[in-house]
Amino acid sequence: xxxxxxxxxxxxxxxxxxxxxxxxxxxxxxxxxxxxxxxxxxxxxxxxxxxxxxxxxxxxxxxxxxxxxxxxxxxxxxxxxxxxxxxxxxxxxxxxxxxxxxxxxxxxxxxxxxxxxxxxxxxxxxxxxxxxxxxxxxxxxxxxxxxxxxxxxxxxxxxxxxxxxxxxxxxxxxxxxxxxxxxxxxxxxxxxxxxxxxxxxxxxxxxxxxxxxxxxxxxxxxxxx
Length: 225
Ligand code: PRT
Ligand code: MG
Fold this sequence. Notes:
Elements: E1 13-17, H1 21-32, E2 48-50, E3 56-60, H2 66-71, E4 77-81, H3 82-88, E5 93-98, E6 104-111, H4 116-121, E7 126-130, H5 133-143, E8 147-151, H6 158-161, E9 167-172, H7 176-180, E10 183-192, E11 194-199, H8 200-205, H9 207-221
Parallel strand pairs: 1-3, 1-4, 7-8, 7-9
Antiparallel strand pairs: 2-3, 4-11, 5-11, 6-9, 6-10
The structure holds phosphoribosyl ATP (PRT) and magnesium ion.
C-alpha cells in the first residue's frame, strides 16, 4: 500500500509470499479468491508480479522475510509458515487464518541410536544445531534442558554427521531427508502450516480493501481437507 519518496505509487493491496512450495500451495487459494498472477515466479525474474486484478499485486520474497515486509507495511498481506512466524515473533501482524497448506512438523532429531531420553535424564548439556533458534530455545527452556544453540541457515542434517552438534531442530514432512542421513525424529515441537498474516495498521485503516481478500481466502478453505 505505502510507497516511499520517489517510488511509483501503488494504490491497491500487496501480498507478500515466497516462491517454491508456499507459492504452489497458495496458487489455488488465490485463484479461488479471484486473483491470478500474470507471471510465474519460478521462471520470471520479476519480484513484483501483477495479477489479473489491477488492485492486487504479489511481491516475491524469501520465506523468512515475509513477516518483515508485512510488519512494516511494505506488503499488506503475507503468507508464511508458522515456523517463520514463531521465529519472527509476530510483532505488528494480525494472523486471522490458518491456510492449512505447506504442512510439516518442527522436530528434534538425533543420529539413529542416540539415547536422547538418557542424555536428558542425565542432565547432559546438548549441542543443538538449527535455523529455528527461538523455537528451539523456548522448547528446551520449557523442558529444563541445558543447550548450546548453534545457528545454521540450511542443511541441518549435516551437523550431527560431522560432529558439529548432538541434535538438530528442523522441519520434517515425509521423513525421507532424516532417513537418508541416518537420523530419527524423537520429539515434536510444533505442527506447522502456512498462515495468512495482515499488517495491523492496514487492517484498521484499509479494512474495506483487505477484508474481502481475507474473506475470499477463508471461504476458499471451507470444506478443503
Ligand atoms: O529456501 P529458503 O532458504 O529461501 O527458505 P525456506 O527453506 O524457509 O523456504 P521453503 O520454500 O523451502 O519453505 C517455505 C515453508 O514451507 C517453510 O517455512 C515451512 O513452513 C514449509 N514447509 C513444509 C517446509 C517443509 N514442509 C519441508 N519439508 N519447509 C522445509 N522443508 C524441508 C526441511 O527443512 C527438510 O530439509 O524439507 C526437508 C524435509 O523434508 P522431508 O519430506 O524429507 O521430511
Ligand atoms: Mg528451502
